[in-house]
Write a structure and sequence with these properties.
alpha/beta; Rossmann fold; six-stranded mixed β-sheet; three-stranded antiparallel β-sheet; globular
Length: about 210
């Protein structure tokens, strides 16, 4: 298999994280609690913390089970460890798709009476949204691509790629490691160039 189709290179990801960090810092002059959603948002959360130039920042994590088929039920596997009442809280997701997971998490946290509660997502795929959802801090917009890397995985492969690649579900279903050789041996694009005439970074970026 040839090298992977790199959708978002390292430079574009870094620039997006810096922008989101600056926006969050500007909106929360009294400090903020970031709640990263495990495991996918772990890398993004770590980089976002470094991008917020304010010492008054706390980091917490939550993890929930998958939605049970035909039930919509999930359970919290790991919860925040601090009292968020009266605090400014931002939930950090790697990708927002249907919106079901993030809506559930925001609902759970809202019951704990934070002063403000908002969401930040590196990737947003609004075409697949099932429930209305306001993502206050939105990084890059996807269409209907299936993507891997920078926390996103398939059977725990590809999480540690420093960039995000486009993948095919059918290919992965037959061979989960189909992109491993090409992805880990590939050279990411220089800067934020987007070879091949695909959508430019400016067009992908949310307004």
């Amino acid at each position: 298999m040839s090298g992977p189709d790199i959708l978002f290179g390292p430079d574009e990801i870094r620039a997006t994280v810096r922008r989101l960090g600056a926006e969050i810092a500007a909106d929360h002059p009294d400090g903020v609690v970031l709640v990263g959603v495990l495991k996918g948002a772990l890398l993004f959360t770590a980089d976002l913390v470094r991008a917020i130039e304010d010492p008054r920042i706390e980091v917490e994590f939550m993890e929930i089970s998958r939605f049970a088929p035909n039930s919509g039920r999930v359970r919290i596997l790991h919860d925040v460890t601090i009292d968020i009442a009266g605090r400014d809280v931002v939930v950090v997701e790697d990708i927002v798709d249907t919106g079901l997971t993030l809506t559930y998490l925001l609902g759970q946290l809202a019951m704990r009476n934070p002063r403000t509660l908002s969401a930040c997502a590196l990737l947003d795929r609004p075409l697949r949204r099932i429930v209305p959802l306001d993502v206050r801090y939105r990084g890059l917009v996807l269409h209907d691509e299936y993507v891997l890397g920078y926390g996103l995985h398939f059977r725990d492969l590809y999480r540690n790629l420093p960039y995000i690649i486009r993948a095919e579900r059918d290919v992965l279903a037959d061979r989960p490691d189909a992109y491993v050789e090409g992805a880990y041996g590939a050279s990411p694009p220089v800067g934020t160039e987007d070879p091949g005439g695909r959508v430019t970074p400016a067009e992908r970026r949310a307004p």
